[in-house]
């Protein structure tokens, strides 16, 4: 029972991050499982199987709060499922450690760009609630993100979310909700691939059950947070998560010393806090348009209440 509670807390924390920022469930939960002594194969397979339940709960919660563009979900998620299945069954045995630093460098650059863009000059169309992107852009993105997610132990959010946010054509809450919802298809396909490639012997029901329980409990809270955080603040926060996640990958690959790593982390943390503070200040000062701050559903209900005849 104690083991189940520990893994439930891991799943709760990972889903809270993923549901609110559109990424890092796999990275967070897999990292914590490895620290707990779970071997990499079992950790990766367990996380993806748990994600089948957590992503379903997250998708339902995001749909309830109006964060989902279903066309975006299908155009991104179906190719993502294909990539995830291929990554889990055919290429998961190949080492991706050599390519990790280069991929992390590209994602790090995207994270810095997103953080600065949403902090200093939020995109004018960043409040659009449906994505204008077509399949010719979304299909390759989903295929690559799904493959990276299954073969690298996580990466659906860190690949798909920054690519969509960088374009600056869709509201961050819609990007996050849609990416989280489409991840159900990715997790399902990856799980099938892992079961075919690894079998069921490596799976621990306590690990999977704990991650699933914690993730399901966190999903509604994370989806609610997305509807309450202004777009510039959310964009700055997402950018910081991307920077931290990929800086960690690069520093480990380069075997940087502990003191240098700590110094770099503190420097990044300072920049991240400053970026969020600037974004909050711009929202409070009115520099950001009101429609980028107020939830549309809440605004519409307020207007209906004012227009309603008094009894």
From TrEMBL:
InterPro entries named in the record: TM_pro_TauE-like (IPR002781), TSUP/Inactive_protease-like (IPR051598)
Membrane topology annotation: Multi-pass membrane protein
Membrane-traversing stretches: 43-60, 72-94, 100-120, 184-202, 233-251, 263-280
Record key words, sorted: Cell membrane, Membrane, Transmembrane, Transmembrane helix
Keyword Calcium: no
Subcellular location, principal: membrane
Subcellular location: Cell membrane; Membrane
Homology family: Belongs to the 4-toluene sulfonate uptake permease (TSUP) (TC 2.A.102) family.
Name of the protein: Probable membrane transporter protein
Taxonomy of the source species: Bacteria, Bacillati, Actinomycetota, Actinomycetes, Pseudonocardiales
